Amino acid sequence: MDLPHPVRKRLEDFSRNVFSDPSRTELTTEDHVKHLERSREVVSSLPLQMCLYFNMWFFPLWWISEVVMLHLKYPALPDYYKFILVTVVVVMTVIEAIRLYLGYAGNLQEKVPELAGFWLLSILLQFPLILFQLFNESIIILPLERGVHIVLGLFILTQAVCGFAALREMVRQTQSQFHLQQFD
Question: Most buried residue among 54, 55, 102, 115 by CB atoms closer than 10 A?
Answer without folding.
Answer: 115
